[in-house]
Amino acid sequence: MSPKCRGCGEYIVFIQTSNGKSMPCDPSLVPYWAKEKSAGKVVTPNGKVISCEFEGDLNKVTGFGYISHFSTCHHAARFKRKRRPS
Ligand SMILES: [Zn+2]
């Protein structure tokens, strides 16, 4: 049975990061472009957490990784900032 987010009910995967923590992530791999001090965070399949952006030149993609579920969770977003539903 796959774990689900308690907030929004979406499927998540737990990726073991290099510092020994399990991080809830979205189950699909996304392309990322590593960039220092970027706001985005990606976890590589072998557990490295990297600052990155999620858009860029496809020819220069750094790799594929998992995006933290905290940054995509609809439920979490509701607490952080109220966004107008479009
Ligand atoms: Zn969620």
β-strand number: 5
The helix count comes to: 2
**Roughly what fraction of the amino acids lie in strands?**
35-45%
Ligands (ions, cofactors included)? zinc ion
Q: Which residues form runs of ≥5 with pLDDT under 50?
A: none
In round numbers, the mean pLDDT is: 88
**What is the rounded Rg?**
14 Å
What is the quaternary state of this protein? single chain
Large-scale geometry: globular
The span between the termini is 34 Å
Notes on the protein architecture:
The chain has two helices and five strands, in the order βββββαα. Strands 1, 2, 3, 4 and 5 form a five-stranded antiparallel β-sheet that branches. Bound molecules: zinc ion. The site of zinc ion (ZN) has 7 residues, from loops.
Q: How would you sum up this structure in a few lines?
A:
It is built from 2 helices and 5 strands; from the N terminus they run βββββαα. It has about 90 residues and is mainly beta. It binds zinc ion.
Topology:
Layout: E1 13-16, E2 22-34, E3 40-43, E4 49-53, E5 63-68, H1 69-72, H2 74-80
Antiparallel strand pairs: 1-2, 2-4, 2-5, 3-4, 3-5
Short key terms for the protein model shown above:
binds zinc ion; mainly beta; 86 residues; single chain; globular
